[in-house]
Amino acid sequence: MAEKPEDKILHDHNHDGINRRGFLKCMAWAGTGAFCVVKGGILNSYSLSNLAGISPDDSKGELTFVQISDSHMGFNKPANPDVVSTFKAAMDKINALPSRPDFMIHTGDISHLSKPEEFDNVEQILKSASVHTVFYVPGEHDILNDDGQQYRERFAKGSQGAGWHSFDKKGVHFIGLVNVQNLKAGGLGSLGQEQLEWMQNDVKHLSRSTPIVVFAHIPLWSVYPEWGWGTEDSAQALGYLKRFGSVTVLNGHIHQTMQKVEGNVTFHTACSTAFPQPKPGSAPSPGPMKVPDDQLRGLLGITEVNQVKGRHALAVIDSSLSG
Amino acid sequence: MKLSSCVRAAAALLLAFAAMTTASGIFAVTPADSPQVEVKIDNFSFGPGTITVPAGTTVRWVNHDDIPHNVVSNDKSFKSKVLDTDEAFTYTFTKAGTYDYFCSIHPKMTGKVVVQ
Predict the structure, then answer these.
(1) Of A41, A86, B7, B109, which is least surrounded by CB within 10 A?
(2) Is residue B28 domain-shared with residue B40, that is, in the same domain?
(3) Which domain does B12 fall in, by range?
(4) How far away is chain B from the Cα of A46, in angstroms, using its nearest Cα?
């Protein structure tokens, strides 16, 4: 993607590649060759067609993991009548990575209708991946009709409340949040007071140099509130993370890649492995976007994240399925 | 003559039944005098967003989206199961009042039923 003038960093006071007075925002449609780069250590994002251009140093880290999202198993409409094969293609892509990632994160909408057979299917296909450890957060499609009971039994054993949890991997602290439950009429995604208190307590004892990765289904930043693409109490959650030097937020839900850097926080949304959704405000509704068959796989994908110890920087690489 | 009037009555009944089933779709068991109103779920919105109906009206919501939705009253007095594409939910409003509802999966989708 050609850099637009408004994306240029004009005031880099800390010489770290981040414009702290504003934000760097770049939207990339994976698979079209679009990518956005923040140089200086914090973030690199590439689509698969550009992977060849990344130096080996940039593609290796002491911790690597993959983000997949919005598999919508069970969806069978024209936007993608075969979500099984595109999900399998994502597994193939993961298996073809130069080194095996430490684990995977699924940022929700595992299923389309919360049906047991849909969850079964995803779990079965995931077995074909070289990575066996998967951490989940639920999407709104995973908690239909039973308030997420089945989801928690399958994917969130040992978690708190509606399924929130945290864990540490190689010095990085990961926090999985649930923002799809108990939503109010007219509102956005919501974390709720109980979860916020848990999170505040969860990070209280961490040193400020601990890299933090937060993942949740609905974006934790205001992508497009008119379509419900935001979380009403995310500012409070992010407030607990202000003292940390490196915070990365990974979300799904909007079926397209988007990045934003604001202060110490980099935000990313991942593609769906099932079907693309329109750019904010570009369609009457956020429903599945029908694209020609030969373009579909270019709009679906996975995200690989590398954490390089010592730099406290996370490089996010968005890969499309077509490469 | 008696037989023929019987036939006529039966035919009239059949015609009335046919008319009723045609008018109310699958809801043939609904009393003929119960008004029916349909709300379409399309492009992540309820249409019409607000309906005003007499008490006793049965409202039928039909999902025309490729994405599932549901219909939940704000006070939780009624709640549909998740509606996949072309699935419908019906609810009969017996008492006057204003009923605000939304899709709890996509809470930006809101609607209102005013029962008089």
Answers:
(1) B7
(2) no
(3) 1-32
(4) 30
Regions of chain A with pLDDT less than 70: 1-62, 301-323
> Which residue has 């006529």 as its token pair?
B8
- Give pLDDT tens digits for B61-86: 999 999 999 999 999 899 999 999 99
Q: Is residue A3 situated within a structural domain? A: no
Q: What number is the ipTM of this complex? A: 0.78
Q: What are the chain B neighbours of A288 within 8 Å (beta carbons)?
A: 66-67
Please count the other Cβ atoms lying within 10 Å of the Cβ belonging to residue A185.
Answer: 17
The DSSP code for A282 is S
B25 and B52 belong to one structural domain: no
Residue A8 inside a domain? The answer is no
The CB-side HSE value for A156 (13 A sphere, CA atoms) comes to 27
As a whole number, the mean pLDDT across chain B is: 82
Task: State the total domains in chain A.
Answer: 1
Q: Hey, what are A46's tokens?
A: 């590439």
**How many domains are contained in chain B?**
2
Q: What CA–CA distance (Å, rounded) separates A104 from B92? A: 47
Q: What is the pTM of this model?
A: 0.80
Whether residue A196 lies inside any domain: the answer is yes
What digits encode the pLDDT tens for the residues B29-45?
455 567 999 999 999 99
Question: Is the domain of B38 the same as that of B73?
Answer: yes
CATH for B50? 2.60.40.420
Q: Among A78, A184, A285, select the one facing B107 at the smallest CB separation.
A: A184
> What pLDDT score does A5 carry?
37
Spatial separation of the C-alpha atoms in residues A188 and A221, rounded to whole Å:
11
**Minimum Cα–Cα distance from B84: chain A residue:** A113
Residue A279 lies in a domain: yes
Q: Are B26 and B39 members of one domain? A: no
Contact: B106, A140; criterion CB under 8 Å: yes
A285/A57 Cα distance (integer angstroms): 42
pLDDT at residue B72, rounded to an integer: 97
pLDDT at A61: 62
Q: Tell me how far apart the alpha carbons of residues B32 and B17 are, in angstroms, rounded to a whole number.
A: 9
- Here the tokens at position B2 are 């008696």
